[in-house]
Amino acid sequence: MVCIGWFFRKKARLNKENYLLGGRSLPWYMLGLSDASDMFDISGTMWMVSLCFVYGLKSIWIPWLWPVFNQVFMMMYLSKWLRRSGATTGAEWLTTRFGRAGKRVRASHNIVVIFALLSCLGFLAYGFVGLGKFMEIFIPWNVVQPYIPFHIPLAYVPHFYGVIFTLFAVFYSVLGGMHSIVLGDVIKYVIMTIGCVSIGIIAMIHLHHQQITVPEGWRNPFFGMHLNLDWTGILDDANKKITSDGFGLFGIFFMMMLFKGIFASLAGPAPNYDMQKVLSTRSPEEASKMSGFVSIILLPIRYTLVIGLTILGLLYFKQIAPQVQNPQGTDFETILPATINTFLPAGIVGLVLTGLLGAFMGTFSGTLNAAQAYIVNDIYLKYVNPNANNKQVITMNYAAGIGVVTLGIILGCLIEDVNTILQWIVSGLYGGYIAANMLKWHWWRFNASGFFWGMVAGIVPAIALAALKSFNILTGLDLYYWPIIFILSLVGCIWGSYSAPPTEINTLKKFYITVRPWGFWGEIHNKVIAENPAFEKNKHFKRNIFNVMIGMAGQMCLTILPMYIVLWMKLPLIITIILLIIIIIILKKTWWDKLSEY
Fold it and tell me: Tens digit of pLDDT for each residue in 479-529?
């Protein structure tokens, strides 16, 4: 990876677009592979294995917290809408919606940069924490300690490992820009695929001759109002995890998650590596193909790894118990590295380690690239040095990368576990993002003032939530505070929009004609029609929503398919395959064949 970064440094330095977007010359399937590889991170996979271990097949729903199905909304229409802007970052995209002039436009621009940097720092810290825990099991501290010329308390050993491996990721991503990130991600994806399939086969062989001891309902992906998983007498610490996670009332949790997920998906991609990959595609049609490709190549491979390691962990839990215990009980997030370390044969262990470390570097470098884009494009070139030459821009990219990583490491040292930062990002911080970014697509009267006040009214309570929870003033699942943050943000959006005049009419007309959104655009549509009677509005709302529902079902089939294979569950597997074939045929006719339409 370091060599790739060095190789691409000259190409990356040609201009800003080459560095941040790969010159918009990369094919959609390469960007899709890269995006999937970026989502295949160590921290998230450790979290998924811990969920699968405790919740069984019901764990497939919990990643809706992100929500994972936002990729379906993007695939069906939002990626095309986003790519039509021709912007370099999410903040720059706002100029296509609200115009370029005025203090309100600058304020909306600044607030999205602040949000983007907060979320990037959060994800860097999230990856950092997971990496440290992961490496601690493979490189025992008692082996390394005699060679370290200074004392490190045991509690900070994972952070030490995190710093070391983070520095490698920084080097190649800062030097090579988007070209090196994408090529590196593709190589890592190939390695991970070999490792994941191998783990799935090994787990199947072990399970064929033995039985896993799990609670009733563990193999059933469906649920009622209550979770009804009782680990008493099998592994009592699992009951404690269910209680601490707050997922016992699973029906309420699921409805809240779905409600939040739909609004979050309507808002479009957050300003991170996912948005950067969409903006890097060659055309709007390729942007949609890329987003659809991500689910197809990510979910089956990733869940083969997740269920494979879960099965091995369940079969041989007594053997890995010493590695996953701490003074507070069982640390389920360490089941993944402990299982890899104990049961996989030499060679496969090397591949999986290489792949997972590469996955960390991919997520880290993609997030870092997004943060650099915002600092350079939306702060440095906008306010500090608008006339910067190419050398100054590249130097600033390097400086921004080093600065963001330093802050991410400091933040990572203050966080206890992966779940803590994940819950805050997806439920707290994103609660402040959703309302403003949903309205910007769908309501013509929404303006820069509404965007600014909506984001402020969401981000400030999200930061307050993190602070109050850190001092134990508030308790409970972050998701349950999300509606409050969302409503505050929505009030800020509406109040801010009506406290200022509408966006300049020519900007609105240009946006409407270029992006072709559906929603509450009647007044602008009438003005466009008056000038151009031949203009046709986007009438595909019903088809887009139908495709989204079909796509969500397909995504869940892709998720559970490898789990049924590894668990030798033949009838559910056959039903899933039949459903998947039907969904593919439908989407071929209602989505793929109509990509060239608006």
Answer: 778 888 899 999 999 999 999 999 999 999 999 999 999 999 999 999 999
What distance in Å separates the CA atoms of residue 75 and residue 79, rounded to the nearest whole number? 6
- For residue 450, what is the enclosing H or E element? helix 448-470
The length of the chain is 598
Residue 385's nearest CA partner among 397, 376, 372, 373 is 376
How many CB atoms neighbour CB 550 within 10 A? Answer: 19
Count H helices and E strands in the chain, helices first.
27, 2
Over residues 468-477, mean pLDDT: 75
How far apart CA 358 and CA 356 sit, in angstroms, is 5
CA distance 242 to 251: 14
Owner of token pair 């369940």 = 314
Kindly report the three-state secondary structure assignment for every residue of 76-100: HHHHHHHHCCCCCCHHHHHHHHHCC
Provide the pLDDT for residue 157: 82
**DSSP code at position 149:** S
Structure tokens, 8: 């691409």
**Which residue in this structure is represented by tokens 């060599």?**
3
What is residue 476's DSSP assignment? S
Rg value, the chain, Cα: 24
- Model's pTM, two decimal places? 0.85
What one-character-per-residue DSSP string does 274-332 give?
Answer: HHHHHHTSSSHHHHHHHHHHHHHHHHHHHHHHHHHHHHHHHHTHHHHHHHHEETTEE-G
DSSP letters for 406-442 = HHHHHHHHT---HHHHHHIIIIIITHHHHHHHHHHHH
Q: Which residues have C-beta within 8 Å of that of residue 144, sequence separation ≥ 6?
A: none
The amino acid occupying position 20 is: L
| 3-class state of residue 543 by DSSP | helix
Q: How many CB atoms lie within 10 A of CB 102?
A: 17
Phi, psi of 406 (to 5 degrees): -60, -45
324, 332 Cβ separation under 8 angstroms: yes
Tokens linked to 22: 């790969």
Q: What would the DSSP string read from start to end of 359-391? A: HHHHHHHHHHHHHHHHHIIIIIIIII-TT--HH
Q: What angle do CA 220, 225, 231 make, to 5 degrees?
A: 55
pLDDT-derived band at 424, boundaries 50, 70, 90? low
Please list, in sequence order, all residues whose beta carbon lies within 8 angstroms of the beta carbon of residue 472, skipping any fewer than 6 positions away. none
pLDDT in tens, 360-399: 776 777 677 778 777 887 788 888 888 888 788 878 877 8
Q: Under a CB-based contact definition with an 8 Å cutoff, are residues 468 and 474 in contact? A: yes
CA-based diameter of the chain, in Å?
79
**Alpha carbon distance 408, 539 (integer Å):** 44
d(CA 506, CA 99): 9
What pLDDT is attached to residue 189?
Answer: 85
**Local structure of 240: helix, strand or coil:** helix
AA letter at 170: V
What is the separation of C-alpha 291 from the centre of its chain, rounded to a whole number of angstroms?
13
Contact 43, 131 (CB under 8 A): yes
Residue 328 has pLDDT above 80, yes or no: no
